[in-house]
Amino acid sequence: DAGVIQSPRHEVTEMGQEVTLRCKPISGHNSLFWYRQTMMRGLELLIYFNNNVPIDDSGMPEDRFSAKMPNASFSTLKIQPSEPRDSAVYFCASSPTSGSRETQYFGPGTRLLVL
Amino acid sequence: KQEVTQIPAALSVPEGENLVLNCSFTDSAIYNLQWFRQDPGKGLTSLLLIQSSQREQTSGRLNASLDKSSGRSTLYIAASQPGDSATYLCAVTLAGANSKLTFGKGITLSVRP
Maximum CA pair distance of chain B? Predict the structure, then answer.
Protein backbone atom coordinates (compact mmCIF):
# COMPACT_ATOMS: atom_id res chain seq x y z
CA ASP A 1 0.00 0.00 0.00
CA ALA A 2 1.27 3.48 -0.81
CA GLY A 3 0.22 4.88 2.54
CA VAL A 4 -1.55 8.20 3.02
CA ILE A 5 -0.86 10.51 0.10
CA GLN A 6 -0.86 14.28 0.43
CA SER A 7 -0.45 16.98 -2.18
CA PRO A 8 1.15 19.33 -2.66
CA ARG A 9 4.15 18.62 -0.44
CA HIS A 10 5.09 22.29 -0.34
CA GLU A 11 3.01 25.38 -0.98
CA VAL A 12 4.07 29.02 -0.96
CA THR A 13 1.35 31.59 -1.45
CA GLU A 14 0.57 35.19 -0.77
CA MET A 15 -1.78 36.47 1.88
CA GLY A 16 -5.36 36.52 0.69
CA GLN A 17 -5.01 33.66 -1.76
CA GLU A 18 -7.02 30.47 -1.58
CA VAL A 19 -5.12 27.32 -0.63
CA THR A 20 -6.36 23.77 -1.16
CA LEU A 21 -4.64 20.80 0.42
CA ARG A 22 -5.44 17.28 -0.74
CA CYS A 23 -5.37 13.89 0.89
CA LYS A 24 -5.89 10.32 -0.24
CA PRO A 25 -6.30 7.96 2.74
CA ILE A 26 -5.22 4.35 2.85
CA SER A 27 -7.71 2.20 0.96
CA GLY A 28 -10.26 0.61 3.28
CA HIS A 29 -9.73 3.05 6.13
CA ASN A 30 -12.95 4.54 7.48
CA SER A 31 -11.62 7.51 9.42
CA LEU A 32 -9.68 10.52 8.18
CA PHE A 33 -8.05 13.26 10.22
CA TRP A 34 -6.56 16.68 9.43
CA TYR A 35 -3.88 18.06 11.77
CA ARG A 36 -1.83 21.23 11.88
CA GLN A 37 1.69 21.34 13.37
CA THR A 38 3.50 24.50 14.46
CA MET A 39 6.45 25.09 16.74
CA MET A 40 4.35 27.12 19.15
CA ARG A 41 1.27 24.93 19.44
CA GLY A 42 2.55 21.50 18.45
CA LEU A 43 0.23 19.09 16.67
CA GLU A 44 -3.46 19.97 16.77
CA LEU A 45 -6.46 18.11 15.40
CA LEU A 46 -8.50 20.31 13.06
CA ILE A 47 -11.27 17.95 11.96
CA TYR A 48 -11.98 14.30 11.52
CA PHE A 49 -14.34 12.29 9.34
CA ASN A 50 -15.85 8.86 9.80
CA ASN A 51 -17.32 7.19 6.72
CA ASN A 52 -17.00 10.52 4.88
CA VAL A 53 -19.08 12.38 7.49
CA PRO A 54 -17.48 15.15 9.62
CA ILE A 55 -17.63 14.03 13.25
CA ASP A 56 -15.70 16.71 15.11
CA ASP A 57 -14.67 20.05 13.60
CA SER A 58 -14.11 21.84 16.90
CA GLY A 59 -10.45 22.29 16.08
CA MET A 60 -11.05 24.26 12.90
CA PRO A 61 -9.68 27.69 13.79
CA GLU A 62 -12.22 29.86 12.02
CA ASP A 63 -14.55 30.18 9.08
CA ARG A 64 -11.67 30.65 6.71
CA PHE A 65 -11.00 26.93 7.05
CA SER A 66 -13.23 24.28 5.49
CA ALA A 67 -12.83 20.57 4.86
CA LYS A 68 -14.68 18.13 2.66
CA MET A 69 -14.65 14.42 2.02
CA PRO A 70 -16.72 13.76 -1.10
CA ASN A 71 -15.85 10.06 -1.16
CA ALA A 72 -13.90 7.45 0.75
CA SER A 73 -10.68 8.04 -1.17
CA PHE A 74 -10.35 11.82 -1.18
CA SER A 75 -10.45 14.80 1.16
CA THR A 76 -9.60 18.47 0.88
CA LEU A 77 -8.73 21.17 3.39
CA LYS A 78 -9.28 24.67 2.06
CA ILE A 79 -8.14 27.98 3.49
CA GLN A 80 -9.76 31.08 2.02
CA PRO A 81 -8.43 33.71 2.39
CA SER A 82 -5.04 32.58 3.68
CA GLU A 83 -3.09 34.58 6.27
CA PRO A 84 0.59 34.46 7.35
CA ARG A 85 -0.42 32.88 10.68
CA ASP A 86 -1.73 29.86 8.75
CA SER A 87 1.86 28.94 7.90
CA ALA A 88 2.39 25.43 9.30
CA VAL A 89 2.71 21.80 8.32
CA TYR A 90 -0.66 20.20 7.65
CA PHE A 91 -0.94 16.45 8.10
CA CYS A 92 -3.62 14.07 6.99
CA ALA A 93 -4.00 10.72 8.74
CA SER A 94 -6.30 7.75 8.32
CA SER A 95 -7.39 4.88 10.55
CA PRO A 96 -9.09 1.56 9.83
CA THR A 97 -11.96 2.17 12.23
CA SER A 98 -13.65 4.96 14.12
CA GLY A 99 -12.78 3.47 17.47
CA SER A 100 -9.59 4.10 19.35
CA ARG A 101 -8.13 0.62 19.33
CA GLU A 102 -6.33 1.27 16.06
CA THR A 103 -3.53 3.70 15.49
CA GLN A 104 -3.57 6.45 12.90
CA TYR A 105 -1.38 6.41 9.80
CA PHE A 106 0.05 9.77 8.86
CA GLY A 107 0.88 11.22 5.48
CA PRO A 108 4.14 13.11 4.83
CA GLY A 109 2.45 16.50 5.32
CA THR A 110 2.09 19.70 3.33
CA ARG A 111 4.38 22.57 4.31
CA LEU A 112 2.46 25.79 3.82
CA LEU A 113 4.07 29.21 3.82
CA VAL A 114 1.83 32.24 3.51
CA LEU A 115 3.74 35.43 2.74
CA LYS B 1 -9.19 20.03 28.92
CA GLN B 2 -6.59 17.30 28.48
CA GLU B 3 -3.01 18.54 28.44
CA VAL B 4 -0.04 16.40 27.51
CA THR B 5 3.43 17.46 28.60
CA GLN B 6 6.80 16.13 27.51
CA ILE B 7 9.92 17.35 29.29
CA PRO B 8 12.66 18.00 28.35
CA ALA B 9 12.04 19.29 24.84
CA ALA B 10 15.41 17.99 23.66
CA LEU B 11 17.87 15.33 24.76
CA SER B 12 21.34 14.34 23.57
CA VAL B 13 22.95 11.05 24.58
CA PRO B 14 25.96 8.97 23.48
CA GLU B 15 25.38 5.85 21.44
CA GLY B 16 24.69 2.71 23.46
CA GLU B 17 23.04 4.47 26.38
CA ASN B 18 19.70 3.26 27.72
CA LEU B 19 17.28 6.16 28.03
CA VAL B 20 13.81 7.05 29.23
CA LEU B 21 11.48 9.60 27.67
CA ASN B 22 8.69 10.93 29.87
CA CYS B 23 5.12 11.95 29.15
CA SER B 24 2.49 13.27 31.57
CA PHE B 25 -1.20 13.96 31.07
CA THR B 26 -3.71 15.81 33.21
CA ASP B 27 -6.89 13.76 32.76
CA SER B 28 -6.51 10.11 33.74
CA ALA B 29 -9.76 9.09 32.01
CA ILE B 30 -7.97 8.01 28.87
CA TYR B 31 -8.88 5.31 26.40
CA ASN B 32 -5.32 4.69 25.27
CA LEU B 33 -1.88 6.26 24.93
CA GLN B 34 0.43 6.13 21.93
CA TRP B 35 4.04 6.94 21.25
CA PHE B 36 4.94 8.22 17.79
CA ARG B 37 8.21 8.92 16.05
CA GLN B 38 8.70 11.84 13.67
CA ASP B 39 11.76 12.22 11.48
CA PRO B 40 12.66 15.69 10.14
CA GLY B 41 10.37 16.70 7.29
CA LYS B 42 8.32 13.54 7.59
CA GLY B 43 5.00 12.41 9.00
CA LEU B 44 4.46 10.50 12.23
CA THR B 45 4.94 6.78 12.63
CA SER B 46 3.24 4.91 15.45
CA LEU B 47 5.67 3.02 17.68
CA LEU B 48 3.55 1.63 20.49
CA LEU B 49 -0.10 1.82 21.54
CA ILE B 50 -1.11 1.03 25.12
CA GLN B 51 -4.79 0.48 25.91
CA SER B 52 -6.03 1.88 29.23
CA SER B 53 -6.32 -1.64 30.65
CA GLN B 54 -2.66 -2.40 29.90
CA ARG B 55 0.46 -1.45 31.82
CA GLU B 56 3.08 -1.74 29.10
CA GLN B 57 3.88 -2.65 25.52
CA THR B 58 7.15 -3.77 23.99
CA SER B 59 8.53 -3.71 20.48
CA GLY B 60 12.15 -4.63 19.93
CA ARG B 61 14.36 -2.22 21.89
CA LEU B 62 11.36 -0.08 22.85
CA ASN B 63 9.22 -0.47 25.93
CA ALA B 64 6.38 1.86 26.86
CA SER B 65 4.70 1.88 30.25
CA LEU B 66 1.48 3.49 31.39
CA ASP B 67 0.41 4.56 34.88
CA LYS B 68 -3.07 6.02 34.49
CA SER B 69 -3.56 6.92 38.11
CA SER B 70 -0.51 9.15 38.17
CA GLY B 71 -1.01 10.42 34.62
CA ARG B 72 2.37 9.24 33.39
CA SER B 73 3.93 7.20 30.64
CA THR B 74 7.53 6.41 29.82
CA LEU B 75 9.20 5.24 26.64
CA TYR B 76 12.33 3.22 27.34
CA ILE B 77 14.88 2.86 24.56
CA ALA B 78 17.54 0.24 25.13
CA ALA B 79 21.03 0.46 23.65
CA SER B 80 20.36 3.66 21.73
CA GLN B 81 21.69 4.04 18.18
CA PRO B 82 22.25 7.11 15.96
CA GLY B 83 19.28 5.89 13.88
CA ASP B 84 17.06 6.50 16.90
CA SER B 85 17.60 10.24 16.48
CA ALA B 86 14.16 11.76 15.89
CA THR B 87 11.33 13.52 17.69
CA TYR B 88 9.19 11.30 19.89
CA LEU B 89 5.61 12.36 20.56
CA CYS B 90 3.20 11.06 23.12
CA ALA B 91 -0.56 11.21 22.44
CA VAL B 92 -3.64 10.24 24.45
CA THR B 93 -7.24 9.52 23.54
CA LEU B 94 -9.77 10.59 26.11
CA ALA B 95 -12.45 8.06 27.00
CA GLY B 96 -15.57 8.87 25.04
CA ALA B 97 -13.68 11.08 22.60
CA ASN B 98 -13.76 8.54 19.79
CA SER B 99 -10.51 8.76 17.92
CA LYS B 100 -9.47 12.26 18.95
CA LEU B 101 -5.78 12.35 19.87
CA THR B 102 -4.20 15.01 22.08
CA PHE B 103 -0.47 15.30 21.48
CA GLY B 104 2.47 16.48 23.53
CA LYS B 105 4.97 18.73 21.79
CA GLY B 106 7.53 15.99 21.59
CA ILE B 107 11.08 15.31 22.70
CA THR B 108 13.81 15.72 20.10
CA LEU B 109 16.39 13.00 20.68
CA SER B 110 19.92 13.10 19.32
CA VAL B 111 22.09 9.99 19.70
CA ARG B 112 25.76 10.83 19.19
CA PRO B 113 28.00 8.20 17.52
Answer: 44
